[in-house]
Every structure is written in structure tokens, then in C-alpha cells.
TrEMBL record:
<feature type="region of interest" description="Disordered">
    <location>
        <begin position="105"/>
        <end position="136"/>
    </location>
</feature>
<protein>
    <submittedName>
        <fullName>Uncharacterized protein</fullName>
    </submittedName>
</protein>
<feature type="region of interest" description="Disordered">
    <location>
        <begin position="38"/>
        <end position="57"/>
    </location>
</feature>
<feature type="region of interest" description="Disordered">
    <location>
        <begin position="157"/>
        <end position="177"/>
    </location>
</feature>
<dbReference type="InterPro" id="IPR029147">
    <property type="entry name" value="CFAP77"/>
</dbReference>
<feature type="compositionally biased region" description="Basic and acidic residues">
    <location>
        <begin position="105"/>
        <end position="119"/>
    </location>
</feature>
<dbReference type="Pfam" id="PF14825">
    <property type="entry name" value="CFAP77"/>
</dbReference>
Length: 202
């Protein structure tokens, strides 16, 4: 298609995405009126009045819900009316009006002291004490370990005297080893070795 033709120019300026033609190797021209380059798209985030610093530095104490009067415990009232030998519905109704028995609120079961102030309580696992980096880098722990080993070595030297090298037991062992002969059966003890004799003669 001739790009200089007036009809082609009319199509390109029509701002209709279906009629606008694209050039070879290029994207279609934008048919919308877009804002400038510095414009930011998307919805603007609302700033939270409570920042991260205030969240970390403050502790919000739990505020329990207001205690409301619970419903009547009709199961217990029926048992009490049976114990009082009331059998008719009229008698049971009158008994329920006269006796005010309420259902126990299970939310407070297991609580320690009611109304305890939780602002002084700490929750979670305590952090480990920080490692003294100066002692690690400066080989402080290595020096302490070397001193302890030196003390234990000196203590062992003082408490246990060293055995002499040339002890009588050691000499006895060497003598017994020298006296030991190679094993031979009794019937071959008097027989001379032929191999040895042959080697000597040669």
C-alpha cells in the first residue's frame, strides 16, 4: 500500500485500532491520548496512620468484650424442678421465673486472675544472648581453652608421677621375648633343617 496516499493517511489518523496499519517490524501507533512520561498508573495507596515504628515500639493490650448477661440454663432448671418434684408445665414455668440460673460463659473458663493487667506480660520465646564478636575474632575463647588445658596437664603431672622407662617389668618382657623360640613339634625338634644346610653349603 502506498503510504503517501491520502486514503492511507486518513486511516492512520482515524484513531481506530482496527483501521490503523502497522509498519513492517514496528508496533501499531497508539490511538489513545496518553499522559506524559512522568505519569504513574494505578490507584493511589492510602497512607496508614500507624507506621512500622509505632507498631514495633508499642504493645496493644487485649481488650476483652463487655460481659453480657448469658441466657438461662433451662437444662439445669429442669433438673432442679425434677428434684423439687414439680411435674406440670405450669409448676416448671413458675419455678424457672423464681430461680435465676444462667449458662456459664465459656470464654472465661481457664483464666487465671480475672481482670489481670496484661501490659507487664511478655509472650513468645526469649532471645538468646548475643555472641561476643570481640572474643571470637580476637581468639579469646581459644586462649581460655589453652589455659585450661595447661592447668589440667600440670595438675596431672603433680598428681600422677611418671613411670621410669627402664622399669623391671619392661626388661622382663624383653627377656621373655628373646627366650621364646619358634614352635616345633616334638618329633621334629631333633631334625635339622635341610634347607638351611643346603644354603650354608652353597
Amino acid at each position: 500500500m502506498d503510504t503517501d496516499h491520502p486514503f492511507y493517511q486518513k486511516l492512520q489518523n482515524s484513531k481506530n485500532i482496527l483501521l490503523v496499519k502497522d509498519d513492517v517490524g514496528r508496533a501499531k501507533r497508539c490511538v489513545r491520548d496518553l499522559p506524559t512520561e512522568g505519569f504513574s498508573y494505578g490507584s493511589k495507596l492510602k497512607k496508614d496512620p500507624e507506621g512500622a515504628g509505632s507498631v514495633i515500639s508499642s504493645w496493644q493490650v487485649h481488650k476483652p468484650t463487655n460481659e453480657q448477661q448469658t441466657e438461662k440454663d433451662f437444662k439445669k432448671l429442669n433438673k432442679m424442678s425434677l428434684n423439687s418434684k414439680l411435674t406440670t408445665s405450669k409448676q416448671v414455668t413458675e419455678f424457672a421465673k423464681q430461680n435465676d440460673v444462667r449458662v456459664k460463659d465459656r470464654r472465661h473458663i481457664g483464666d487465671g486472675v480475672k481482670g489481670k493487667n496484661q501490659s507487664d506480660d511478655y509472650f513468645g520465646v526469649p532471645n538468646k544472648p548475643s555472641t561476643p564478636i570481640e572474643q571470637v575474632v580476637g581468639n579469646g575463647y581459644g586462649n581460655v581453652a589453652a589455659e585450661e588445658k595447661k592447668r589440667t596437664y600440670e595438675f596431672n603431672l603433680q598428681s600422677k608421677p611418671l613411670k621410669p622407662k627402664n622399669s623391671p617389668r619392661a626388661t622382663e618382657k624383653t627377656e621373655t621375648l628373646e627366650e621364646k623360640k619358634e614352635f616345633k613339634m616334638k618329633k621334629f625338634q631333633q631334625v635339622e633343617s635341610k634347607v638351611k644346610n643346603n644354603l650354608i653349603s652353597k
